[in-house]
Design a protein that fits this description.
- β5 and β6 (47-50) form a beta hairpin.
- The protein has one domain (3-107).
- 9% of the residues lie in helices and 53% in strands.
- It has one helix and ten strands.
- It has one helix spanning 118-129, and strands at residues 3-8, 11-16, 20-24, 33-36, 39-44, 47-50, 58-69, 73-79, 84-90, 93-104.
- It is mainly β.
């Protein structure tokens, strides 16, 4: 099973192919296709790739299904000993998207060269001076 964690408008969401996810409202019309490149983690066939900060060569495609208002959120303010109470609320604007595919090309991934740690480099320098 392939799944991924994406960063979408400041929220991190765990997704898999075929999922339908509620996200903050999008500007795109219903039926349009999205390409999400902010993939923070991807798990494919038991191999986990963690991005620094994002995974290179990873792409998620999704389709906007609908726009709707979420459940009402109630916010109550209160001040002690002054009989002040006020109740406010709002309904967040949300969009529902369907995840079509999660793709990752490992052959094009660039591996960064390993560097010697400072502790190791310092100990080597001391041995050369002696």
């Amino acid at each position: 099973m392939i799944y991924a964690i994406i960063d979408f408008k400041g929220t991190q969401i765990k997704i898999a192919e075929g999922d339908q996810v509620k996200v903050p409202k999008l500007d795109q019309k219903e039926g349009t296709e999205l390409k999400i490149e902010n993939v923070l983690l991807i798990n494919h066939d038991g191999n986990v790739e963690v991005g620094i900060p994002v995974v290179k060569n990873a792409l998620v495609t999704a389709t906007v299904l609908e726009h709707f208002k979420g459940k009402k959120i109630r916010v109550a303010t209160y001040k002690a000993k002054s009989r002040y109470r006020k109740v406010k609320g709002f309904r967040p604007q949300l969009s529902k998207i369907a995840i079509n595919s999660i793709s990752f090309s490992q052959k094009n991934a660039v591996k960064e060269p390993k560097t010697a740690s400072k502790k190791r480099a310092g100990s080597l320098a001391k041995t050369k001076k002696s």
